[in-house]
Each structure stands twice: as structure tokens, then as C-alpha cells.
């Protein structure tokens, strides 16, 4: 009997995994064939290509204090601000309507009449969203690297590949923060328009005007007798952690908090990865944990909500 129970448990896990992969595949396919998402992604990749091309033409290889021998790292260093500002929009576009559209179309009802459980649905959706973001980031790397290699015919070292791979991983987790927020809002809000407005507002406040807002707030608090510096207040923004890890700055939003660290982020070849990690390990931990917390919160909220019509 024990063997039968173990076999049945194993079969259930296998079915659950197949269901998750099925939902993930559906989510991936729905997004990569969505005209609005394709337009947004094409615009983002065009921006990346344009800045990559200009970096080569205008020879900005030493702009970020990197070794002259590692031009590829320098070009990627020149793209950090553009990626930091615009990659959250990819996460938002993927997440803001993910539950709402299924609820409105009634497809959740159909799925739940089959042997597909709630946890399979939300886990599959989150996996599918992660896959799409990873695909977009890979496209970013291919376009940037391809532009440089094709125009200059340079050779790429293992060190450069390693650092760019780490840069890509942290960019993925950074984008997942906004995807997690978007999915969470999509779970509790019933109108796609409202969900989009909330997410865009969060993006504007945390990516574009965070620095200027925190500088103003710090000044007002100081006048009120509360000593809180803008460099401390900026810690509420995901861009803060991404900026430190990738660029070695406290903030790269508009009129951002001007704190520069000795190491210019993950792409600075003048320092070892061990030195980079020792300097930014708290920020690395934060950017890895925050999206996991948000995605888990989305998972729990989805499980508790009345998601059917």
C-alpha cells in the first residue's frame, strides 16, 4: 500500500509539473504574439540598438572607467541607464493584465474545470512571464554584443562573458520586481485600466523621479528636525539596488541622488568580482530576494482570491 501511495503521489507531482509547464507555455505564447507587447519590446530593442551603435561610432569605450581592452563591457556600461529605466516596463506589460484578462475572458473557469489547480495556474503564469523577460534580456545582450562585434570585429574574453551574464541575471531579477508588483495588482484589481495606471505610477515614482522626490523629502524632513538623508530614503526604490550593483551609483533616476562608489558596478574590470561582491553584497541580496517575496505574495493572493466569474 505504501508503494501505491508513493506512486500516486509521484504521479500527482508529475501531472502538476506538466500543468505548470502547459500554462507557462500558453502564457509565453500569448505574450510574444500580443501586438502591443511586441510594439513595446521592439521599441525597447530599437533604443538598445541605437545606443549600442552610437557607443561604437562615438567611441565612448572609456566613459565608465573600464579597461580599454574591454570595449564590450564599456558599451554595456553605456546602456545601463536605458535598461534601468525601460526594462521595468516590460515586466509591467507582462504582469498588469495577467490575471484580469483571464478572469474577464472566463478562461480561468475553463481551466479550473480540468485537472489544473490554482497553484498550477499561477505558478505557470509566473514561470511564463519569467521566460518572456529572460528572452527579452537575451535579445538585448545579442543585439548589443552583435552590433559591436560586427562593426569592430573584436574578440570577447571569458571574463567579459561572465560579467555580462551576471549583469543579465540581475537585470532579470530587477525586471521581475516590477512584474511581481504588476501581477499582485492584477490579482486584486478588477479593471485592466486601473491596474495599468497604478503600475505606471509606481514606475514613474521609482524609476524616473525618485531621486528628486527623495531629495525634496529629505530637505523637508531636515527642516522639521528629522535627520534622514536622501541616500537613505532612496532605498525604497528597486532602481537604487540595481544602480549600485550595475553602475556603482546610489541612483540613476532624473536628478538622482549623487552618490558614486569606488567600484563602477559589475562591469568595472578594474576590480575583481570578489571585490565587487564584498562592496555590494547587501544590494545583491536585496535584488534577489525582493522579486521572490513579491512573486510569492502574488501566488498567495491568487490562491486566496475569488478568481472565477
TrEMBL record:
<dbReference type="GO" id="GO:0005886">
    <property type="term" value="C:plasma membrane"/>
</dbReference>
<keyword id="KW-0472">Membrane</keyword>
<feature type="transmembrane region" description="Helical">
    <location>
        <begin position="126"/>
        <end position="152"/>
    </location>
</feature>
<keyword id="KW-1133">Transmembrane helix</keyword>
<dbReference type="Pfam" id="PF12679">
    <property type="entry name" value="ABC2_membrane_2"/>
</dbReference>
<feature type="transmembrane region" description="Helical">
    <location>
        <begin position="70"/>
        <end position="96"/>
    </location>
</feature>
<feature type="transmembrane region" description="Helical">
    <location>
        <begin position="284"/>
        <end position="303"/>
    </location>
</feature>
<feature type="transmembrane region" description="Helical">
    <location>
        <begin position="36"/>
        <end position="58"/>
    </location>
</feature>
<keyword id="KW-0812">Transmembrane</keyword>
<protein>
    <recommendedName>
        <fullName>ABC-2 type transporter</fullName>
    </recommendedName>
</protein>
<feature type="transmembrane region" description="Helical">
    <location>
        <begin position="164"/>
        <end position="189"/>
    </location>
</feature>
<feature type="transmembrane region" description="Helical">
    <location>
        <begin position="196"/>
        <end position="214"/>
    </location>
</feature>
<dbReference type="GO" id="GO:0140359">
    <property type="term" value="F:ABC-type transporter activity"/>
</dbReference>
Amino acid at each position: 500500500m505504501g508503494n501505491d501511495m508513493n506512486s500516486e503521489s509521484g504521479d500527482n507531482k508529475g501531472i502538476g509539473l506538466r500543468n505548470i509547464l502547459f500554462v507557462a507555455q500558453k502564457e509565453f505564447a500569448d505574450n510574444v504574439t500580443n501586438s502591443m507587447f511586441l510594439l513595446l519590446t521592439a521599441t525597447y530593442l530599437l533604443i538598445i540598438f541605437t545606443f549600442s551603435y552610437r557607443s561604437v561610432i562615438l567611441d565612448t569605450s572609456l566613459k565608465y572607467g573600464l579597461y580599454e581592452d574591454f570595449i564590450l563591457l564599456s558599451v554595456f556600461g553605456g546602456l545601463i541607464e536605458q535598461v534601468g529605466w525601460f526594462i521595468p516596463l516590460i515586466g509591467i506589460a507582462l504582469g498588469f493584465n495577467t490575471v484580469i484578462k483571464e478572469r474577464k475572458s472566463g478562461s480561468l473557469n475553463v481551466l479550473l474545470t480540468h485537472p489544473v489547480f490554482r497553484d498550477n495556474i499561477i505558478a505557470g503564469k509566473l514561470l511564463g512571464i519569467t521566460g518572456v523577460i529572460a528572452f527579452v534580456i537575451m535579445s538585448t545582450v545579442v543585439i548589443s554584443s552583435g552590433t559591436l562585434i560586427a562593426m569592430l570585429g573584436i574578440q570577447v574574453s571569458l571574463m567579459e562573458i561572465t560579467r555580462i551574464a551576471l549583469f543579465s541575471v540581475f537585470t532579470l531579477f530587477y525586471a521581475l520586481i516590477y512584474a511581481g508588483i504588476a501581477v499582485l495588482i492584477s490579482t486584486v484589481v478588477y479593471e485592466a485600466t486601473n491596474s495599468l495606471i497604478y503600475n505606471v505610477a509606481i514606475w514613474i515614482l521609482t524609476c524616473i523621479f525618485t531621486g528628486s522626490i527623495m531629495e525634496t523629502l529629505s530637505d523637508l524632513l531636515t527642516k522639521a528636525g528629522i535627520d534622514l538623508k536622501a541616500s537613505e530614503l532612496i532605498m525604497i526604490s528597486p532602481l537604487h539596488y540595481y544602480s549600485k550593483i550595475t553602475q556603482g551609483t546610489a541612483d540613476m533616476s532624473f536628478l538622482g541622488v549623487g552618490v558614486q562608489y569606488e567600484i563602477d558596478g559589475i562591469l568595472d574590470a578594474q576590480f575583481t568580482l570578489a571585490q565587487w561582491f564584498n562592496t555590494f553584497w547587501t544590494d545583491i541580496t536585496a535584488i534577489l530576494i525582493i522579486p521572490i517575496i513579491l512573486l510569492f505574495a502574488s501566488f498567495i493572493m491568487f490562491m486566496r482570491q475569488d478568481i472565477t466569474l
